[in-house]
Amino acid sequence: MLLFQVSFLLQTNARAVPAQILDGRAVANDLRAELVSQSNSLRERGIHPRLVIVLVGENESSAAYVRTLVKMGERVGITVHADQLPETSDAAAVRERLEALALDSSVHGVMLQQPLPAHLSIRAIADSIPIHKDVDGTHPGTEFTPATPAAVMLLLERSPHWPLTGRNAVMIGRSVVVGVPVALLMLARNATVTILHSKSAGLQPYVKMADVLVVAAGVPNLIGGSDIKPGATVIDVGTTLVDGQLKGDVDFDSAVKVAGAITPVPGGVGPVTNIALLRNVIKAASNAGKLNPRD
Predict the structure, then answer these.
(1) What is residue 141's predicted lDDT score, i.e. its pLDDT?
(2) Per-residue pLDDT averaged across 69-87, rounded?
(3) Are 239 and 216 in contact (CB under 8 A)?
(4) Hey, which residues does 110 pair with through a beta bridge?
(5) How many angstroms separate the CA atoms of 295 and 289, rounded?
(6) Contact, 268 vs 24, CB < 8 A?
(7) Whole-prediction pTM
(8) Among 43, 88, 211, 246, whose Cα sits 20 to 30 Å from the Cα of 205?
(9) H-helix segments, the chain
């Protein structure tokens, strides 16, 4: 009886230990220092990293995002330029601009900002993004990991469940921009991966069994503390504006009492995503330098 009581108290106290907060801002700061060093090295060789973001039409959210990248680029030695096209531009005009950027040796990264106007389809345009400059991972077969999936992995590397070999991992969401790439990246790290989505019969028992849970469903508070395995690592990719506040897919207040490690929203995946994109620009500039050495 005494042994049972001691065991029960130990389990209760273990669950009461606050989760490790995977602070995206702190991770971004660490990675930013690395980017400064890398960009300085490239500039010493006469290579000035440059990203061009093609925007079609006027979208304030997109414009705000680009302004953020311009400021971040200035801080790490990467020139970020916004190339604005009219709202009425057709697919041929967008493709023509992207193809011109492919030939511009001063440009190392090319990104087509989404969402596009309703009359344009990314599927009809994506293959015109130069594959060796596709730093946002849009083009089929690109060597660059899309920024948000890369950010998820960078945060997982700092979690108690890294390395992922042998871990049970659950990905909620199957979008081609987040869910599927993250699942494949975790699989490549030898995790056992289950993908759940809107057509799945249910989230349980899979979520409760997950050592690592990544949620990118766009449904605020979809996952609560009672849903997850005690001690699990939880990465919340969701960002939905609710009554003027940014909410994640995970109910942070309840989940933080159960998880072993968890990302907040805001301040988790988002800051690391921007840095991951700029890391790809540095990689593209370095690749260009190897092809066209100036030493």
Answers:
(1) 78
(2) 96
(3) no
(4) 52
(5) 9
(6) yes
(7) 0.88
(8) 246
(9) 2-16, 24-44, 60-76, 91-103, 147-156, 179-188, 206-209, 252-255, 269-291
